[in-house]
């Protein structure tokens, strides 16, 4: 049974920082792509950052490039999202996602989601 457990959300002032963590179990971590999505009230879920676990290559949404950093710790089966210079547009529920195994075609890959962690940026 695959589980993704997120932590690290909370309330932060504009300009502040938070680090989110997502620990995966029940899957072969290096065979998956890991990502962070977010969903603000009344809006669709959007991709924030993506990491190809085996290679370590990353990609970001334009809105967070230069402020957010995604990384992974393979022995800990954990992916992180370091968020700096947060603004009010960063207020959302952040979800961890695992997609894979990567040697499957995209159509055959499984998608797993964490329960989400709330990030609120407010003064």
User: What share of residues is helical?
Assistant: under 10%
- Regions with little confidence, pLDDT below 50 for 5+ residues: none
Strand content: over 45%
Structural class: mainly beta
Order of helix and strand elements from N to C terminus: EEEEEEEEEEE
Radius of gyration from the alpha-carbon trace, in angstroms:
14 Å
The whole-number mean of residue pLDDT values reads: 96
**Number of DSSP E strands:** 11
Number of helices: 0
Q: Main beta sheet, described?
A: 7 strands, mixed
Q: What is the CA-CA span between the terminal residues?
A: 40 Å
Molecular shape: globular
What oligomeric state is this? single chain
Verbal overview:
By secondary structure, the protein is mainly beta. 0% of the residues lie in helices and 51% in strands. It contains no helices and 11 strands. It has strands at residues 3-7, 10-12, 18-25, 33-39, 46-52, 58-60, 68-73, 78-83, 92-100, 110-113, 117-121. Strands 2, 4, 5, 6, 9, 10 and 11 form a 7-stranded mixed sheet that branches. The protein is globular and about 45 Å long. The N and C termini lie far apart (40 Å).
